[in-house]
Design the sequence.
């Protein structure tokens, strides 16, 4: 049924933003774990581990996020598992964010001079101790600006979850468009909310 | 299940006719309740090829237009008067802080209510160009600002005209500095073209949905298409590396 676009629809859109933020938080948490693993693999002393990390980044950064969403959401039904949009989105975004965060954090780890590692070694610290007490605290400071930058990308990219029926801001915009038939106004409001979320 | 369910579905696809002998590996998956069948996907290769062509067209045209917008916009942003650089800044910020899919929806679903109608391919092309243009402006602007003032003065003292200075002293070195960032943005753009399937532009990803609905081979279709995108991304990266050697490396 078509009805007029009213203020309550704007409130619904703003309310739907919480799912955008929730998905961003899940993606950041999952992606953070994957990214940490990828970054550590990429700076590891063993060449095969470095290759493994490199391969992961190559594959994930070379495939569209949409493909991951569809593989998880539609693809896994062949095993008789019904994947909810939440699970599919959480898995896809963790994989996706993991590759990018992994590369960002690898860069930060590698920006710490080699001599810092050697200083740690000469103090008798092991690899994990060097990483934990010397490298990571310094790398963390470098990592904050690019990580926040990627987080903004992530907020915007959660909009793709709308295509698998995940109710967030963009999906709510689609639904509002369907009931009010005012796509231009609705999507402008949606864009404005994303703008407010991601601009500094 | 005694026989493979894909056999009956294979015949529903017009392009699959006469190709049933293609592929194998049915026996190896006998223990699973589901057996992977990639042949229905490959049997529809003509669909995939059509989609691939549109994806490539969209990517290439968008890259050219996006680069042009990027150079012009960055020049306006850095050297232009305030009445020009302000709107460019607003454009860049508005596009970079909103998702591509919302921009697509605005142009494809929103603009017709203002009386401006595009078909899906044109809307996709416009949205992608506007999107890439904004990112390119920001990247190239950083390159322009990295050119030392003394370089421009050196150009002036050699008697170069304003346009010559811009072309040889400013844009060329700026593009060289920002080439890696620009190239990776272009590859990301190529991957992002998959989003245009959501406004029914018949790109590679849209073709995957068509094959999916005809064969019900969801997993296989999307794995094959993801692999195709991966191959494309690697080819683009190689081409961009080659282009760098060709254009910038010898100087």
Sequence:
């Amino acid at each position: 049924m078509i009805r007029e676009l009213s203020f309550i629809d704007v409130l619904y859109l703003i309310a739907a933003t919480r799912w955008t933020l929730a998905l961003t938080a899940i993606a950041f948490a999952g992606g953070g774990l994957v990214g940490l693993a990828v970054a550590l693999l990429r700076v590891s002393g063993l060449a095969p581990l470095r290759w493994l990390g490199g391969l992961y980044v190559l594959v994930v950064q070379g495939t569209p996020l949409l493909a991951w969403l569809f593989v998880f959401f539609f693809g896994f039904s062949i095993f008789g598992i019904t994947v909810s949009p939440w699970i599919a989105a959480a898995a896809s975004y963790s994989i996706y964010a993991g590759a990018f965060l992994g590369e960002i954090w690898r860069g930060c780890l590698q920006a710490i001079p080699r001599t810092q590692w050697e200083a740690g070694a000469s103090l008798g610290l092991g690899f994990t101790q060097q990483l934990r007490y010397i490298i990571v605290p310094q790398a963390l400071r470098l990592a904050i600006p690019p990580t926040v930058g990627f987080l903004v990308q992530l907020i915007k990219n959660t909009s793709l979850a709308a295509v698998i029926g995940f109710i967030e801001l963009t999906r709510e915009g689609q639904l509002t468009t369907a009931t009010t038939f005012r796509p231009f106004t609705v999507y402008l409001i949606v864009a404005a909310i994303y703008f407010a979320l991601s601009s500094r | 299940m005694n026989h493979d369910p894909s056999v009956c579905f294979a015949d529903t696809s017009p392009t699959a006719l006469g190709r049933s002998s293609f592929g194998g590996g049915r026996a190896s998956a006998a223990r699973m309740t589901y057996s992977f069948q990639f042949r229905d996907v490959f049997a529809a290769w003509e669909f995939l090829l059509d989609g691939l062509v549109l994806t490539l067209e969209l990517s290439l045209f968008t890259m050219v237009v996006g680069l042009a917008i990027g150079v012009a916009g960055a020049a306006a942003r850095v050297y232009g008067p305030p009445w020009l650089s302000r709107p460019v800044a607003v454009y860049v910020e508005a596009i970079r802080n909103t998702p591509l899919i919302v921009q697509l929806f605005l142009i494809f679903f929103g603009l017709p209510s203002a009386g401006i109608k595009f078909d899906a391919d044109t809307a996709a092309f416009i949205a992608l160009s506007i999107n890439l243009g904004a990112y390119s402006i920001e990247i190239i602007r950083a390159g322009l600002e990295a050119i030392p003032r003394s370089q421009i003065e050196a150009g002036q003292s050699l008697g170069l005209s304003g346009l010559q200075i811009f072309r040889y002293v400013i844009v060329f070195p700026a593009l060289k500095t920002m080439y890696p960032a620009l190239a990776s943005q272009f590859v990301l753009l190529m991957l992002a073209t998959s989003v245009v399937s959501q406004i029914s532009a018949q790109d590679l990803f849209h073709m995957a949905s068509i094959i999916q609905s005809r064969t019900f081979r969801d997993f296989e279709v999307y794995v094959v298409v993801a692999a195709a995108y991966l191959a494309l991304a690697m080819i683009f990266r190689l081409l961009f590396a080659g282009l760098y050697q060709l254009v910038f490396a010898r100087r």
In short: Chain B touches chain A through 39 residues (CB under 8 Å).
